[in-house]
Design goal:
CATH architecture of the largest domain: 3-Layer(aba) Sandwich
CATH superfamily of the largest domain: P-loop containing nucleotide triphosphate hydrolases
Strand order of the largest sheet: 2-1-3-4-5
Largest sheet: 5 strands, parallel
CATH class of the largest domain: Alpha Beta
Number of strands: 16
Distance between the termini: 79 Å
CATH topology of the largest domain: Rossmann fold
Shape: elongated
Oligomer: single chain
Length: about 475
């Protein structure tokens, strides 16, 4: 039994309703406050102690979920009652998974709410003691951050495959999930004193891919071509990391697969084979232009596969990653800052389509904008809003998205005024594709300017009758 009546904070979108409930509760509790301002509620929760919090799910403008996330992250969590006019099974399940003690259907009376608050307080267990400090990182796999089960499994896989230096590895994961970081961790555990050669497959023109990868022999024929080592040879006994493996031209895939299977290859123009001494690690987001060709290609690459989950599937890792990035940024800019609890709540409430890379980008923006020693929720919200204003990866197709849509427009050059008046995204896309293609004779250069892959540009040129 509690010796004192509870202190209750009502965060209610209907300001009049919330204040009326708070007024009716005051004779029955130690204190009852009501606010319809989500920011003010977050400030009160971080500066004062309430025994229970009632949160309106439809709180404008972002809803009540960021406040629920903040409540769950406070040092001494308190029971939270979710108030909503539309109670359904999905909402209830999500609320319970967010640590909500109970759900109350609106409109409710002060007496009804007080009964639910008292029941929640009676069932509320005392806050658990803080976990013991994490041990210092023991190896490079420990730098792949995350406490989620999926990331623990990924670290175990990194350590396991590192014991077999000749075994090829395929890393799967959406753009921004940290595939190169995993490849570097495998390399550091396997051959830290040897080269780590990264190849962005989508950045190499199709006609040059075979020579770039395998090299070519010296030739005494017309042109006097000198011997040129390929990237495989450059990796020595270290690691060759082939990023965006789906962009390997179909004409080279068979030779690459045979190289990985036999660990031998021939330079262009050579009559004898050379041994592959490096470990080859491939990575893909499983995109591609022809799934019929790509799927068996990926299956044959997958000697050992490490799959990285998107950040939205491991939201419990956001706090750890955010703190790590803020510490890095503080050292980089010589300006140490911390993330407020409200800022962390805002980070948890976002779905992160750009994954870990986007999280770091948002935090860098917020770090630069924050004027004091603390990064607050408004800076995070502004950074996220600017990210949302950028197009998603698929806005110009499924290719290698490298630059914001607006940047592509500025790089192409002429016709900007006309583009502003395009009546649809399709028309705007066509204008950009036409202008990029007409302004250069190179498919590769036009694709680079637009921030898409060559194969995607070819599809769009065909779509708009330009090829």
């Amino acid at each position: 039994m509690r010796k004192l009546p509870p202190r209750i904070l009502l965060v209610e979108g209907d300001d009049t309703f919330g204040k009326n409930i708070a007024r009716a509760l005051r004779p029955l509790v130690l204190a009852a406050e009501a606010t319809s301002d989500g920011g003010a509620a977050m400030a009160r929760l971080t500066s004062d102690r309430f025994d229970a919090v009632v949160v309106d799910l439809e709180l404008p403008p972002l809803g009540g979920w960021p406040i629920l996330s903040l409540c769950a992250s406070l040092p001494a969590p308190r029971p939270v009652i979710l108030a909503t006019g539309h109670v359904d099974v999905p909402t209830t399940v999500k609320a319970m998974r967010s640590g909500v003690a109970d759900v109350v259907n609106k409109p409710y009376t002060a007496e009804q709410l007080l009964r639910q608050v008292e029941d929640a307080l009676a069932a509320h267990a005392p806050a658990a003691s803080p976990p013991p400090p994490k041990p210092a990182p023991l190896d490079s796999a420990s730098q792949v951050l995350g406490d989620s089960e999926a990331m623990q499994r990924a670290r175990d896989q990194i350590r396991n495959v590192a014991r077999f230096p000749d075994l090829g590895v395929l890393i799967l994961g959406e753009s921004g999930t940290g595939k190169e970081l995993v490849a570097e961790a495998v390399h550091e555990l396997t051959s830290p004193d040897q080269p780590f050669v990264t190849v962005k497959c989508a950045s190499i023109p199709d006609a040059l891919f075979e020579v770039e990868l395998f090299g070519h022999e010296a030739s005494g024929a017309q042109g006097q071509r000198a011997e040129r080592p390929g990237l495989i040879q450059s990796a020595g006994r270290g690691t060759l990391f082939l990023s965006e493996i789906e962009a390997v031209p179909s004409t080279v895939r068979a030779k690459l697969l045979r190289t990985l299977e036999t660990r031998r290859y021939r330079r262009v123009g050579a009559t004898r084979e050379t041994e592959v001494r490096a470990r080859v690690i491939c990575a893909t987001d499983q995109g591609g232009d022809d799934a019929t060709l790509l799927e068996p290609f990926l299956h044959r690459l997958a000697s050992f596969t490490i799959a990285l989950p998107p950040l939205r599937a491991r939201s419990e890792d956001i706090d750890l990653l955010a703190s790590h990035f803020v510490e890095q940024l503080g050292a980089r800019y010589d300006a140490r800052k911390r993330l407020s609890q409200a800022a962390l709540a805002a980070l948890r409430a976002y779905d992160w389509p750009g994954n870990v890379r986007e999280l770091r980008s948002v935090l860098e923006f917020a770090h630069v904008r924050a004027k004091g020693s603390s990064i607050e929720a408004p800076e995070v919200a502004l950074a996220i809003a600017e990210r949302r204003a950028l197009p998603r990866r698929g806005d110009l197709g499924s290719g290698n998205y490298q630059a914001p849509f607006v940047d592509a427009a500025s790089q192409v050059g002429q016709g900007a005024d006309a583009r502003r008046h395009s009546s649809s995204l399709r028309e705007l896309e066509r204008d950009l594709v036409v202008e990029a293609y007409n302004s250069t004779e190179s498919i590769s250069e036009a694709a680079r300017r637009l921030g898409i892959s060559r194969s995607t540009l070819r599809e769009k040129l065909k779509k708009y009758g330009l090829r």
